[in-house]
Amino acid sequence: MIHTSWQDFLAAREIWREPLLASLVAGALCGFLGVYVVLRRTVFVSAALTQLSTLGLIAALMLEESLGVEVEHAGVQLAVALAFSVAGALALGMALRGRKLPAESGVGTTYVLAGALVVLGANRLVHAAHDLNAMVFGNAVAVPVADLLILTGVALACAVVHALFAKELVFVSFDGETAAALGYRTGRWNALLFLTLGLAIPVSARALGALPVFAFLTIPAAAALLLASRLRAVFALATAIGVFAAAGGYLASWFWQLPTGATMVVLAGLCAVPGAFLRRR
């Protein structure tokens, strides 16, 4: 049953303008970066970084509730989440470079430890449970202009980096051994890629939630790989699917009064169905 008409929706543009724009930007950013995540078979890395970002938010909230330090300003919470995510991204990049242990072991350890700390931290929170729930499952209902500007700035920075160094990042990501043999500093290029992921995940999760961000780092790229074979087409299609699922999910959640983040994830999953069907044929 539809609870909102188009007339009511358009009349409320002052409410949904920033959240919808943030959904578009975050969907495009995560959809694009997800191609690297899926093709490098590092889906678990995005999950670990998302978990670290959530842990950073909990750390900021605990400063307010447990230590009596007022950090309730959204910018401070985002800054702490960024610090955790970027530090984790750089650490994982170095760990993957060393290869003393299988890559999955370090990523899995990070994910499990961060997840355990998230549970312990959430158990200590009293007054900020709503903030944590929105961060994890997505609640892109009210996005401050400042958060939209930060998200847009990070997206533009990532776009510039990947435009300038597309050849190196693609080569190192998908044929690292050959790149190393040709003299490419694979460790540095991998660190740069992980840095863009570490920046993108917290700011996107701030707008969409951790669950939609993790989904957008995997599902659009997987759907695009089922539908296209050329790498450029895969990047473009994954970005488009991310935008469509984020915007469509937001609109559907508005009209049908559904949870925003979950609606986005389901719509992204539906985008993968045609590709799976075509591959079966």
UniProtKB/TrEMBL annotation:
Gene3D superfamilies for the chain: ABC transporter involved in vitamin B12 uptake, BtuC
Record InterPro entries: ABC_BtuC-like, ABC_TroCD
Membrane topology: Multi-pass membrane protein
Location within or outside the cell: Cell membrane; Membrane
Transmembrane annotation, as ranges: 20-39, 44-63, 75-96, 108-126, 146-166, 187-205, 211-228, 235-256, 262-278
GO CC terms, sorted: ATP-binding cassette (ABC) transporter complex
Pfam families on file: ABC-3
Domain of life: Bacteria
Location (main, coarse): membrane
Keywords in alphabetical order: Membrane, Transmembrane, Transmembrane helix, Transport
GO biological processes: response to zinc ion; transmembrane transport
Family indicated by similarity: Belongs to the ABC-3 integral membrane protein family.
Entry protein name: ABC transporter
Organism: Anaeromyxobacter diazotrophicus
